[in-house]
Amino acid sequence: MRYLLDGLGDADMKWILFLLVFSASGFSAGAQTLEWIDRQEHFQATTGQTVRIPIKIKNTTDKVQFFIVKKASGDIGSNQKGYFCLGDDCLDPGVDQFSKKLEPGETITNLYFTVEPGMVTTSNSFRFEVYSRNNPTIGIEHSVSLSVDEKTAKSLVFQSRDITVHDIYPNPINDQAFIDYKLHNELIKAKVVIHNILGSPVGHYDLSVFESRAKIQADELTSGVYFYTVYIDNIGVLTRKLIVRK
Questions:
Q1: pTM of the prediction?
Q2: Residue closest to 245 by CA, chosen among 199, 177, 192
Q3: Fold (CATH) for 156-244
């Protein structure tokens, strides 16, 4: 190669240099057609707890893109289920890919790969591929690991003649968490309010006497420190720290 270049003039060398730079910049632009936002590589769950792996894809171009996300590898056990969900609409288990149109600059934020781990402790590894339908040779790979452990006893954080409250779990939270409770007095009104670090409420959950678990959603919350407060007849009786990690 060096001997070939030695025989070229300055004009030829400049032309070759231009082609190399142009090719490199073209590959870079192609590689940035789609971007995976807020990647997380490891998830933890307890037996019986459903896990949602967020897949946030951004169209970084000024053109409409049809993207495909595929579960390229990763075994689902016989007692497990794994499937793609767009919001609350889910595909059948066993369907290993999902496709959607993205407008220029649009980011899809409600796409998940949902895993129901069952009641057995296990470890799973998944590898996802994301690419544009117009150019399937350039894409994104992302690997995720999932650890499922035995459900441990939840700590008791408040008890009175009116209510018993266990600590929120899991904590840190990725997309959803739970608070187990028991109302002993049917006449009271109980609720849980989530506040950000500035004290502004960002979530409100009424505690029904006919139920014993409240599901706390964190889909719209950014990573950071929050607090949850249990109210009995609008009087705060308990405040605990909650960490959102995405």
A1: 0.57
A2: 177
A3: Immunoglobulin-like (2.60.40)
